[in-house]
């Protein structure tokens, strides 16, 4: 028969390994995600507005950034 202490020890070790493995997998996933989809900044908004034929004013840029922050 296996002692209760050994079973508990194995369970704790397995939980720790799972947590560490999950952390690194999530970290790798987020790094890849941000490489493919970088967050929008003010310069990107300016470029987008200019490509649509609008003249980007600071007020419009700040309003759009604030709207995006409020949506999150």
From TrEMBL:
The keyword Transmembrane helix applies. Keywords: Cell membrane, Membrane, Transmembrane, Transmembrane helix. Pfam families: UPF0154 (PF03672). The chain crosses the membrane at residues 6-26. It comes from Enterococcus gilvus ATCC BAA-350. Coiled coil: none annotated. This is UPF0154 protein I592_00793. It is found in: Cell membrane; Membrane.
């Amino acid at each position: 028969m296996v002692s209760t202490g050994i079973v508990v020890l194995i369970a704790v070790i397995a939980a720790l390994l799972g947590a560490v493995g999950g952390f690194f997998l999530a970290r790798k996933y987020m790094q890849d995600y941000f490489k493919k989809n970088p967050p929008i900044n003010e310069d990107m908004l300016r470029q987008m507005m200019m490509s649509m034929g609008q003249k980007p004013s600071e007020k419009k840029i700040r309003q759009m950034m604030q709207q995006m922050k409020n949506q999150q």
